[in-house]
Amino acid sequence: MQPDEDVRRHRWEQRSAWPLMVGSLVFLAAYAAPIVQPDLSMDARRFAGWVVAGTWLLFAVDYVVRLGLATRRWAFIRRHPLDLAVVALPLLRPLRLLRLLTLLSFVNRMGRSSLRGQVIAYVVGLTMLVLLLSSLAVLDAERGREGANIENFGDALWWSVTTVTTVGYGDRFPVTGTGRLIAAALMLAGIALLGVVTASFASWLIARVAEVEEAGQAATRHDLAALTTEVASLRAELQQDRPSR
Question: Is 174 part of a structural domain of the chain?
Answer without folding.
Answer: no
